Amino acid sequence: MSIELQDLWPDDINVEVLPPVAILRAQLEPLRHKTKGILQAELDVVNSDSSNLITYNLDIIAPSLASYRHRILTATHDKILVYPVTITSACLISRRVSESPEMPARVPALPRLGDMFSKSDEYEEFGSRRAAGEREFQHSLRLILKSREVTSIISSLIARSNQLQLDHEKSTSSN
Q1: Tens digit of pLDDT for each residue in 56-82?
Q2: pTM score, two decimals?
């Protein structure tokens, strides 16, 4: 008697998956380029000896404003298993998907981003989201980086940096 055993592994296994750190690092240069060097992004890695977790902090830095730094997000995962990864950002708090610059304003009453993810997905009121894999991580990262909150931070820091430059030019031309 011959028994045929089935392959029970998922059919959609991706062998080209990237870890969160690679995806986050890929975001550093584009910000400097898009802002013509006025702003920079920096990724700090916190590798705790006391826990099995690695934390990445993504900050925007305005070098001309005494290197003012604004935290955009924190991503945390196990030292060995990079997924799931927990993303924490103020942008995830009660944010509406329709507020994204990519979404047309005419889209009626879409659910809040937080409502899209159940408590079992570890959405918390303080702005955390758990991504099970690369695709979910990139989706969450895209929502954060293109959010109105981050766009506002970028615009504010550029405006302050430009004003400082104008004040400097004005003071040197009047001397």
Answers
A1: 999 999 999 999 999 999 999 999 999
A2: 0.77
DSSP state of 4: P
DSSP state of 31: H
Beta bridge partners of 58: 43, 73
Are the beta carbons of 35 and 154 closer than 8 angstroms?
yes
The DSSP code for 49 is S
Name the residue ranges covered by the structural domains of the chain: 20-94+110-173
- Block residue for tokens 């909150």: 149
38-50 pLDDT, tens digit each: 999 999 999 988 8
Q: Classify residue 10 by its DSSP letter.
A: -
From its phi and psi, is residue 66 left (phi > 0), alpha (psi between -120 and 50) or beta? Answer: left
Calculate the CA 34 to chain-centre distance.
Answer: 17
